[in-house]
Amino acid sequence: MPSLYVVATPLGNLQDISLRAQALLAAVDAIAAEDTRHSQRLLDAVGIKAKLLALHEHNEQVAVGQVIRMLEAGQHVALISDAGTPAISDPGARAVARVREAGFPVVPIPGACAAIAALSASGFVENGFHFVGFLATRQTARRAEIEALRALAVPLVFYESPHRIAECVADLAAVLEPARDIVIARELTKLYEQIVRMPLGEAVAWLAEDPNRSRGEFVVIVSGAPATEGLGVEAERVLALLLADLP
Ligand code: SAM
């Protein structure tokens, strides 16, 4: 049956592309990519010739129509983003929903995901986490979002760009308890990979000490609400479940 394959690609280190991903990308009739020029470099590096079509946040609705027509014509299509797993803080989620609605199988080809890579090396031992992704770009909205996460008892996982890492960490430190731990995971799998853990109250000064520490791409993880505060463990667990279902 013609299918859409959601294929994870490396975060930086090309060796992180799986054998299955390579075989699949070489076999499909077309690859829908967030940035075709960026993805062409990856495909060239692993020696794959493929037909690329653009599917990004600005054309997703139109491009998915093209993907569905290809599936209806019996073709297999892969979906990739610039780095990591498509549809996770990346284009693709709406395309996946539409393809499923159209009745075609959607098959994940798992691999790199920045949040999971950072969590795996974070040392947080709680059973579970809350994935936030990108916070709002405006400070008032950003602080309100952080405030709404304050009672959650599990680690909070954020994505951040170099442009806003200092503001993001400053707002986390302003709204949440300074004794919580923060993990800053920078440039994962790349040459200047850095993963540090410290009390949240020290993180603003740590970043300011060296401009290199604000360069690159970031996953930020902050430990959950301290056990002594809030609603109690069971109430927090229920609240976390309810909050996770909110849009
Ligand atoms: N879909 C991707 C995934 O599976 O992780 C995430 C895409 S999102 C548009 C890009 C964000 O992911 C970056 O701003 C950063 O927060 C995070 N990210 C991507 N690559 C990273 C890396 N090598 N090191 C740290 N964070 C990274």
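^ S-adenosylmethionine complex. Residues 11-12, 81, 83-85, 88-90, 113-115, 159-161, 185, 187-190, 217-219 surround S-adenosylmethionine (CB under 6 Å). The radius of gyration is 20 Å.
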